[in-house]
Fold each of these.
Amino acid sequence: MEAQNETAILEFLLLGLSNDPDVEPILFGLLLSMYLITVLGNLLIILAITSDPHLHTPMYFFLSILSLADLGFISTTVPKMLVDLRNHSKSISYAGCLTQVSFFFFSGGLDSALLAVMAYDRLVAICHPLHYSLIMSLRLCGLLVLLSCFISFLDFQAHLLLVSQLTFCKRGEIRHFFCDPSELLNLACKDPSTNHILLYLFGVFFGSGPISVILYSYIRIISAIRGVQSPSGKYKAFSTCGSHLSVVSLFYGTGLGAYFSSIVSHTPRNVMVTSLGYTVVTPMLNPFIYSLRNRDIKRAIWWLACKPAHRQCPGSPF
């Protein structure tokens, strides 16, 4: 009888952000708008970088991969939320839940690793400008992206292995808008305390590496900038890091906020709202942060947007 209870749950219910029929159309319109803006913005960044030979540098190469990761990250959760709000059906199969966990942690881990790689790129550009082209070769850039993918692969495999070994006895209601592993642990037959500890250890292990690289890089960068005599030189050196610092602060600020709120707060709604920050808001704002503060990106987007077939584009205003 116990074995039968353990295999009874073949699908889950994602309770989502709201059960109010009057609120759901508003949520649908808001999420759809944010998703379309995210897709359009990140695709524009990718097209602008690939179409402009002046942007074929390591920094913009990593930015294009980051845009791809952002597209994957937001597409893991938002389309399912939109379908649920549109069809008033919140069910997700067991296999679908495991698939969502896999893509969520792969895309999120890739985002985190790429931000660390981009911090190292800025370190080399500022601290070793004369040897930048030699150090940041095409071979090294490719290896850094492959290393980021490998770390992300280990990240999602660890979480997938933890979740796939669970057996469920309780009612399959997930108090979140996606298959959050911490919520799945609470539905398991066995005491989830040990698995919760493992889950937090995974977060520390896979999160501490990129954060350490970013901190080390910016300590070296700040030290190098302090040695620059002219204020204009200091501003020029640090301005190249402004967009990256903004994205790092937004991603890790909202991510750590959601991480600690899940520990401190026992209100699912508070956890879901903070989770929206890094799953939806951050991928949407990244293209704006990099394009609004970067003349090269703005110029490339301008030429991409205004140049029709076989016609010359007027001079860029940037």
Amino acid sequence: MASLAKLPVPDLHDTVARFAEAARPLFSADEFETCLAKLNDFVATQGPTLQARLHQRSAEHANWLEDWWNEYAYFLNRSSVCFNVNYFFGFRDTPQPMAQARLAAALIDSAVRFRSQLESDSLELDNIRGKPMCMYQYQYMFATCRHPGEQRDWTEVYPRSESTHIAVAHKGRYFVLRVPAASTNRHADIAQIER
């Protein structure tokens, strides 16, 4: 993470222009003119002060947005985080049809191998269109539990040595499945998980 550029503070004028472009379809012509007037007033009054405060925060933090994101978009967010916040995994089609248990075992084995790469620092650097991405949050992908709270959720990170299982949900029932460590024989590992 230290070798990556810090998350930049977006330019105030660019942010306002992008907001205006996104907001335009939501307003009538008169309403949009009122919106533009308020945006212009913001840029001329409060905007520069708030922009300076963002730059100050950026100078004082490794990531100026992270704490706010975690607090307001994640822990205080009362909407379904499963669909609105969490990352997702994209899967390639299997070369041939598989029984459901075999496919589930293959997915579990892939997750175990991914975790092994993550923990051994051998995971290939994530990037988008050739630009390296910060992978700091990957540390929370495993051995971490998000606990629901009435007003605010919270997370707990468990020792990796204690996290050797997965939860399996089937027809409204939950099971604990102990997962073997990845070996060099992937087919044997998948067969063991499937049993």
Amino acid sequence: MADSTVIDPTKLTPTSIEVMANQATINIGTIGHVAHGKSTLVKALSGVNTVRFKNELERNITIKLGYANAKIYKCSNAECPRPGCFKSFSSDKAVEFPCERSGCGGTMHLVRHVSFVDCPGHDVLMATMLNGAAVMDAAMLLVAANEMCPQPQTSEHLAAVETMKLENIIILQNKVDLIREEQALKHYEQIQNFVKGTIADQSPIIPISAQLKFNIEAVVEYIYRNIP
């Protein structure tokens, strides 16, 4: 990293390594129905459990807005297969370190520093969700694959970010590990029909299991490539 004594502040941008090394430069919210895996996803990406307060732990739901920072890295080796060449870690990780893939020999370089805003999904906590949406640069809409789509807060949260004209939305079909392939495909079609004509009409739908950290690298890659 460049010596801080010779840094020209007029040339710094949100993606300058000198900036990203020390602070998050983009806010991404998690939205969706209660118990669809928003907090679990944030923990999979950042290593931070945003469910912290006693009443949240007792009820196993998010009640207050949760915050967690994560650094996103990309391997320098062009032969390192994607999406595994992308990783996310907690914000105390070094700017660069050796790639963990056996035999790769590349170096993981910091490419993004993200602050996640974990919103509650319960219907009585919509005001809290709206407060979180006000600071979002992008949103990840979680939809549990083991339930019909849409659920009430799936619709309400999407309508909320649409009202705020939030353009960068990623749809995550979570909990695919709990259903069969044909069920997942049918549910995928339900999501497509649900977002048709909305601000999320052209958004990608990425199947994941936040609990098992399945396909999390694909989410990380999409954040890097498509969210400014």
Amino acid sequence: MFTGIVECKGRVVEFKSLDNTESGGSGASLTIADAKDILGDCHLGDSIAINGTCLTVTEFSSDEFKVGLAPETLSRTNLGQLQPGDHVNLERALAAGHRFGGHFVQGHIDTTAEIIEITPDANSIWYKLRVADKKLMPYIIPKGFIALDGTSLTVCDVNDDDQWFTIMMIAYTQTHV
């Protein structure tokens, strides 16, 4: 479980579609750098959310870590399209007994979304989005929440007929994701 509050931004070092190393598991893998802030208490097998996707740490150092990517993960996310140098949102799994400031987010991704409109409003920004899998629209409700690239956000408006929804991003969130 995660909160949807991004702890830090990492940087993609490498995406391998076939990683035959032990930590790559003979499948796809993703290596992330600039992650020192979240690796101090890391262990092999820990869960870290990359852009909201719950993934298992298979190798790590003081500043970098590697995760394996299952075919299901690649089919439902854009993680396989990341390039070296791309920035990603990172969050460690919740620790029992600690306060959290977001929503309960599983990190199990259902689909991707397309931004169809961006509208500034004072110091905030409205985003209108359309999900790739239209069957998910009944589960998106006004004043509910949705995680986008690992950031938990409140849903503002939903239009089932035209199959879009909106969120509003405050200034603080804009500078941290």
